[in-house]
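Appendix B. Raw example, untouched.
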Amino acid sequence: MSFLELFKRPCLIGAHRGYNSKHPENTLSALEASIGHCDFIEVDVQLSRDGVAVIMHDETLERTTNVRENEAYKTRVPYKLSDFTYAELSSLDYGSWFYLDKKKFEPLLTLKKVLEFVKENNIYINIEIKDLNDTFSDVKVVASVIKEIEASNTKDLVLLSSFRHQYLPLCKKIEPDIPTAALVEVRHPKPLIEYLKLLEVDAYHFDDALVDEATVKKLRDAGFFVNIYTVNDKKRRQELFDMGVNGVFSDYLE
């Protein structure tokens, strides 16, 4: 079954950065804990300075690593991820910030490792490609991500999304069989349906604050799958499903 076939099922739950209310976000432990509690997992991908696809949400490292405590990197403020090599990123702890006891080390998670994990567990993954246009060309970013997907033979388990919409037609050009989704916050592009068709996307992911029943219906009638972020209230989830939303991204999977 492909990711698009999964979207034909109702009331889907996406684990936002893994089970991130229980484990440090975008780590292997967060992914492992989400198994059995969601229909698909969402992670964020960026490139290290030397072009390795790694899993992290923020543009900088200080919130979710121990980079500030590492004497070797004291002069590297503002700790931008793309300024660090893969070897340097691998020297950091991605978990202890989350735990009160500060003793649970989590290693760097790479896209390669994520794809090995989803293949082994036969679970679907939404890979959000972060906007890296100030550091790498669009072709470099998209090609690097798709190369990992093709090498792992996981095309059927993957959906690619991004707030940088220039990436999305490139994804289709390089690998037309991988579904894509446009991510949006603040406001909808206009005219919405025509815009999404130009991007050649299969789905539209947008902030809960932008949801109204008429927009959801228009999108669904036009053949687009609709997924909403970030929805942590069970009552609100059901309201969205009743509107015709396909899935929601959530931090809480209980």
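End of appendix B.
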